[in-house]
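[audit] Reproducing an earlier prediction to check determinism. Same input, same settings, fresh worker. If the tokens differ from the archived copy the diff job will pick it up downstream; this log only records the rerun itself.
[audit] input (93 residues):
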Amino acid sequence: MEDVATADTMVFSGWLIAIIIGALAGWLAGKMVAGGGFGFLGNTVLGIGGAILANWALPLIGVDFGAGFFGSVVSASIGAAVVLLLIRIIKRV
């Protein structure tokens, strides 16, 4: 029974870390995608979405930046930049 509780806690903490790192990544993505930002709050929300997207999609396609803080920030920043670019493309259409 303790193994199930530990696994649930690890999954929750992984997503919580992805959200916190996503906020940082959103800010970085706003700086990387010139002219595509939505302000600090908007970029933070997009960064969280991008971090969740990257946390799910990048391992599916075999991309791994390693464990730890740096790898998480890199993958979350890529996810946030992709989300930011997609929204920018949609806004133009």
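[audit] rerun output stored. Observation attached for the diff report: The chain has three helices and no strands.
[audit] end
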